[in-house]
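Section 3.1: Structural characterization of target chains.
Under the original work plan, the team committed to producing a structural model for every single-chain target entering the pipeline before any wet-lab resources were allocated. The record below documents one such target. The sequence was received from the expression subgroup and is listed exactly as submitted; it comprises 70 residues.
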Amino acid sequence: MTQSKKQCYFCTNSIKLIDYKEVEILKQFIDSHGRIVNHRRSSVCAKHQRGLSTAVKRARFMALMPYLIS
């Protein structure tokens, strides 16, 4: 019953900088209500989770992503 631990999406794909303009990648880490998914559910490492949240917030500010999904 041991589950294999998921790998970080950004580490496995060798993405060093998370860009706020890559909206399609950022949408993978947003839930149905428009909130940023936590690291336990998205299996992103802590370093990339901090960069991910900053990129999502910047994309929202630049109107590339919505704040709320209704």
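The CA atoms of residues 37 and 59 lie 16 Å apart.
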